[in-house]
Amino acid sequence: MSLQYIYRPAKVKSSEKSPVLLLLHGVGSNEQSLLSLTEGLDPRFAVYSLRAPLVLGAGSFAWFHVNFTAQGPLHNQQEAEQSRKILIDFIRTLPKENPDIDAENIFVLGFSQGTIMGLSLALTEPDLFKGLVAISGRTLQETSAQAKERTYSRSPKVLLMHGRQDSKLPYTHGLNTEAVLKAASFDFQFESYEADHHITPQMLQDLHQWLIKRISAGPQ
């Protein structure tokens, strides 16, 4: 299955190939939702904003179905795994499809369910991309279990961000992900904010600065 997306080429080319930012939206949203985040982004980035494959309604898509219960969110594991495989294929074939992008400087930015997918990719395919901005998400139980069974010789850098007043995916999910990344010896930074389940101006400022530094650091 191929993914639909919006592509915005880099505004400025500082080298022969452009670093890439892949945007993964949350449940019930679409490929338009995170594009505004890129307005103040480093102009060297080429941007792909991806649409999740499952249709929930008009303009509403998901990476997997989920039910929010008193015991916590319950998700469709088969759908999550299928979406993970689709994303792996998309990222691996991207440099062949677009020779103008830098395969050594691919970054993923996810929000909510998009973050869940980004963390699943980082923990199962640690050489797939260079960095991950993970906003207001969680780590799936099956992904955490897999991470405990392996040793990571290489992994993407991670910026983990979560609101302390998050009413959709409570702050404890951010703390749990912090523990998973720490146990896996990932190079990560965890920032918390006075926020609910949304992206604040301070988050935007922080993620922009983090991405600039990661590009400047060169290939992994």
From TrEMBL:
Enzyme Commission number(s) from the entry: 3.1.1.1
Matches recorded under InterPro entries: AB_hydrolase_fold, LYPA1-2/EST-like, PLipase/COase/thioEstase
GO MF annotation: an example: carboxylesterase activity
Transmembrane segments: none
Source species: Bdellovibrio bacteriovorus (strain ATCC 15356 / DSM 50701 / NCIMB 9529 / HD100)
Top-level division of the source organism's lineage: Bacteria
Protein name: Serine esterase
Entry keyword Cell cycle: no
